[in-house]
Amino acid sequence: MSGADGWAAAGRNPIYWVLFATILWGLYWMPLVFLEGRGFAGVWPGLLLNLGALAVCAAALAWRPPGWSSFLSGRTLLGCGLCGVAVTLYASSILATEVARALLLFYLCPAWSTLIEMLFLGRRASGRRCLALVLSALGLVALTGGELHLEEAGGLGDLMALLSGFAWAVGTSLLFGSPRFDIRAGSFHAFLGACLTGFLLLPLLPSPLQAQALDWALGLGLGALYMLPVVAICLWGALRLPPGQLGFLLTGEIVSGLLSATLLLDQPFGWAEGLGALFICSAAASEAFAGKR
Fold it and tell me: What is the pTM of this model?
């Protein structure tokens, strides 16, 4: 295979694209914290990014070439919408709790995906897969001490991170094997679900606004340039990769996210976070080996 053919094959391989998106997901806390510093709080940083991406998707849908259809099946609509719900819950959890905890709790996602594949997609409950579930559960216990204090802001952030991982697992499971769709239509419905979820969360989380017009423009622009390609790549990958494998690939975000947050943010990363990371990453690795057998 020539060099050009090799590059072309890599460009068609969803694994490479998902790994690229994984790096960007790991740095997702940066635009959120940046917008928080510009006067947005609570739900607003994530909501603003999603609104910027949604505006571009709506403009793309308005231009329809001959023979192009934006029709999506009910299963695909639900899958895209749940992925959007996951994006908003994840963004809100990053600002409501510590970045490391939000990352690790979200990435129990491979455990949810494995359960879904075993219960609904006919995948066998092998010993290796059961081990992945046990390791994920141990990681959850290590991070939370076995309980969530929902009366505290951090506890609510932990819960949103957990729910976001579950919503992502269900959404990508619905997308895998569904009829192929135009990514513009899929991204539009994902960001529509993300924005609707954000507006529903506004009454639940304190979200004061002290931003200027320039700050709004910056947030919307970041959504169009940063969020849109990341989510679109993941949706494209979800059509082609089993949910367990997709969840494992995305756990690479833990590396870039934890390293960048630990180095650049004054947030603790103690034995509980380290032990949780060890268990959850081990569970993801176990699931990956199970997929190769």
Answer: 0.80
